């Protein structure tokens, strides 16, 4: 059965310490708006609804994992100002620990997230303190055997984050699992940096469009096999169709999704990644972790907002049975 906090235990002296998710992804503020359609250039439209919410790949992944009982640490940077205060409150409310003090003289970044009638989301992002992660910050963060580290492609777009993350990953103990999601801007990441991160990655999670961008191969199954040929486990997310799971040396396994009426796809991929990590840390086999991640993402798209992943009881109810490892 599922414990209140997932993750196997490691010994630290005479104390049993739970394994953790350590997140290097960004936390920003989503200024969300639901619109019938995106405006034409020069137009002015009125949104149907909107909100200011903590979001970003890091926050969404951490929230998904924390709601499933995972001990979670935000190792990224955050700012001084109203956006930073909102981000820290959201992290606190989800029970997520914060590794660093706020950066002085700069606020947390934000984005405008427009969701249209087809539930598709469109972003415009302004980078803030989350883009100022340095080796000095990460020198105070230690990953222990059994921990999982999450890396987002957004952190590989520019310095100083890129260099700090790559150097820190290279020094991790071999028993640390690294899960990387390259994100929609994968085509703009420096290839040398991408190669360095792939060498450190245990599990690679991306959607079918990102898999094609990385490999030049249109068919997701073939793209997954190429990605896995470098020695990583690979999850290719297929939206409503579920995902493909490829262990190194094996053929992809198709795990079907769940048909749902989508309200907002913002954060659905992040919900999948966070749920997959939480279930791996909880001792589930990769196939069952991916199946449950499919369900978590399906639930998330029925709710408006960036961090809408379910809690354990909601996920179990959706799947119609108690959690079994």
Can you give keywords for this protein?
4-stranded mixed sheet; alpha/beta; 325 residues; 10 helices; 9-stranded mixed sheet; UDP-N-acetylmuramoyl-L-alanine:D-glutamate ligase; single chain
Give your account of this protein's structure.
- This protein is α/β, with parallel strands linked by helices.
- It has one domain: Ribokinase (UDP-N-acetylmuramoyl-L-alanine:D-glutamate ligase).
- The chain contains ten helices and 15 strands.
- The chain has helices at 56-66, 82-93, 135-138, 161-170, 191-200, 208-215, 220-228, 268-281, 286-300, 312-319, and strands at residues 9-12, 15-18, 20-23, 28-34, 49-55, 71-74, 97-98, 110-115, 121-126, 148-152, 177-181, 203-207, 233-237, 243-246, 253-255.
- The strands form three sheets. It has a nine-stranded mixed sheet with strand order 7-6-3-10-11-12-13-14-15, with helices on both faces. The chain has a four-stranded mixed sheet with strand order 5-4-8-9.
Termini distance?
7 Å
Radius of gyration: 19 Å
CATH class: Alpha Beta
| Total discrete domains | 1
Task: Give the CATH superfamily.
Answer: Ribokinase
| CATH fold assignment | UDP-N-acetylmuramoyl-L-alanine:D-glutamate ligase
CATH architecture: 3-Layer(aba) Sandwich
Mean of residue pLDDT? 92
Q: Which of globular, elongated, flat, extended, rod-shaped describes the shape?
A: globular
Broad structural category: alpha/beta
Q: β content, as a range?
A: 15-25%
What is the helix content?
25-40%
State the major sheet.
9 strands, mixed
Number of helices: 10
Low-pLDDT parts are 1-6, 11-15
User: N-to-C SSE series?
Assistant: EEEEEHEHEEEHEHEHEHHEEEHHH
Q: Find the count of extended strands (DSSP E, 2+ residues).
A: 15
Sequence of strands across the biggest β-sheet: 7-6-3-10-11-12-13-14-15
